[in-house]
Design brief:
Helix content: 55-70%
Distance between the termini: 64 Å
Strand content: under 5%
Number of helices: 11
Largest sheet: 2 strands, antiparallel
Strand order of the largest sheet: 1-2
Mean pLDDT: 82
Order of helices and strands: HEEHHHHHHHHEEHH
Radius of gyration: 22 Å
Number of strands: 4
């Protein structure tokens, strides 16, 4: 009888959450947010999403808006796919993922058109191309289909933040050195121009986006030697 009582005894809970359940921000969950910022960055380590770094990093404003848009799409899509993962037939999982991502992108695009129309026009087709972004589809396929809602949400936020960080960093140097401005406001003082400084217009050309990303990759690998591929 005593053994039966022990087996049927309910374990204590705190706020209706079992004490043995993994904390929301456990070490593993925190790594989902931190790893994409450095050791597993989608652009500099996985070499995904390079097209965005090339196309929309001439100015900071569109780069920031694009980063926020991708974060919203990735977080929502990861959560939805995680919720539906047991209901999605394996044969049509890619189609379902595309439908979910496309729906989120359309929603984000409509919000931008309503509240930031100028930026929406500037980003043009690149918002729509989030649908085929390798990072978004890759995380749905590799993570959200096999993990719970909370972990999938953190994974989406983390990878989008890592992607956005590189975009914003590249846009910062390209706008500053290419036009002497940030957010359209002149940053480099006229006194420096009078000394003979001329804006580096080369930074505004598309190849400089890739060169800037390459420099970031070089700095990252020189700081973290474990990222260097062994022959």
């Amino acid at each position: 009888m005593e053994e039966n009582k022990k087996t049927t005894e309910i374990k204590p809970t705190v706020l209706f959450v079992n004490k043995e359940r993994e904390p929301l921000f456990s070490k593993k969950n925190r790594k989902l947010l931190s790893d994409p910022m450095d050791d597993n960055n989608p652009i500099t380590v996985q070499v995904l999403g390079i097209c965005s770094a090339l196309a929309i990093t001439v100015q900071l404003k569109p780069a920031i808006v694009m980063s926020i848009s991708v974060m919203a799409v990735m977080a929502a899509s990861n959560v939805i796919i995680s919720l539906l993962r047991d209901l999605i037939p394996n044969r049509i999982r890619i189609i379902v993922q595309l439908v979910v991502v496309a729906s989120m992108v359309i929603l984000v695009d409509q919000v931008l058109r309503a509240y930031a129309y100028d930026v929406s026009k500037e980003l043009s087709i690149f918002i729509g191309l989030i649908i085929t972004n390798c990072i978004v589809m890759g995380r749905l396929e590799a993570f959200a289909l096999g993990n719970g809602v909370w972990k999938s949400f953190l994974d989406g936020i983390g990878n989008a933040a890592g992607y956005g960080f590189i975009l914003i960093l590249v846009a910062f140097f390209r706008e500053l050195l290419g036009s002497g401005k940030l957010f359209g406001f002149q940053v480099i003082p006229d006194a420096i121009y009078s000394l003979g400084y001329v804006n580096n217009g080369l930074m505004l050309l598309s190849p400089m986006a890739l060169i800037t990303v390459g420099i970031i990759i070089w700095i990252q690998r020189s700081r973290n030697r474990t990222l260097i591929e062994k022959n």
